[in-house]
């Protein structure tokens, strides 16, 4: 079975295939590890760009708990430009009706079309209705964030807080990356 992980090279190709809002959405999902529902409901008032934080409203998160999500420093200028570029909505990513957020299905479509354009989308199976299941999804970008964070030495409890997991066991699943990822991590390991 094809692993449901993407490489940094595939991620770069995905980002490079997109522009503007769509590119920012991809970078924000992967850079913060936010859930798609948190991203679509994100309001300008949830952003503290000076402190590089997103404060999703607790009632709008899966766990219904408040948390601070750290924004990677390189994303802040792009996010500031995006937010300043329009005043007509309270949402960071408004939908077609500017008073409503972008839908999760639209974000999934952006991710899928970007991955196809970048040549990194691939099916790994079929659902119960026979429709293809694809590797690159918004949730894959959450996984990408988690694996990259661990690769960079982010402590597991900090990753747990960033992802909004209530149980450390949920976060520790990312320690069990596929054998190809582990093999690559061990390149250059000597004793």
From TrEMBL:
<dbReference type="InterPro" id="IPR002104">
    <property type="entry name" value="Integrase_catalytic"/>
</dbReference>
<keyword id="KW-0233">DNA recombination</keyword>
<protein>
    <submittedName>
        <fullName>Tyrosine-type recombinase/integrase</fullName>
    </submittedName>
</protein>
<dbReference type="InterPro" id="IPR050090">
    <property type="entry name" value="Tyrosine_recombinase_XerCD"/>
</dbReference>
<dbReference type="InterPro" id="IPR013762">
    <property type="entry name" value="Integrase-like_cat_sf"/>
</dbReference>
<dbReference type="Pfam" id="PF00589">
    <property type="entry name" value="Phage_integrase"/>
</dbReference>
<feature type="domain" description="Tyr recombinase">
    <location>
        <begin position="1"/>
        <end position="187"/>
    </location>
</feature>
<dbReference type="InterPro" id="IPR011010">
    <property type="entry name" value="DNA_brk_join_enz"/>
</dbReference>
């Amino acid at each position: 079975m094809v692993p449901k992980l993407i490489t940094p090279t595939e991620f770069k190709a995905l980002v490079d295939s997109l522009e503007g809002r769509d590119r920012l959405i991809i970078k924000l999902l992967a850079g913060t590890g936010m859930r798609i529902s948190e991203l679509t409901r994100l309001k300008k008032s949830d952003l503290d760009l000076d402190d590089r934080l997103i404060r999703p409203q607790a009632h709008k998160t899966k766990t219904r708990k408040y948390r601070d999500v750290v924004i990677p420093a390189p994303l802040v200028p792009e996010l500031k430009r995006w937010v300043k570029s329009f005043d007509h909505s309270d949402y960071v990513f408004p939908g077609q009706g500017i008073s409503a957020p972008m839908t999760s299905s639209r974000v999934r479509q952006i991710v899928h079309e970007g991955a196809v354009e970048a040549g990194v989308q691939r099916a790994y199976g079929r659902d119960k209705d026979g429709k293809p299941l694809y590797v690159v999804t918004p949730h894959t970008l959450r996984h990408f964030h988690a694996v990259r964070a661990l690769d960079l030495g982010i402590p597991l409890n900090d990753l747990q807080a960033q992802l909004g997991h209530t149980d450390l066991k949920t976060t520790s699943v990312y320690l069990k990356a596929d054998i190809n990822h582990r093999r690559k991590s061990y390149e250059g390991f000597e004793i």
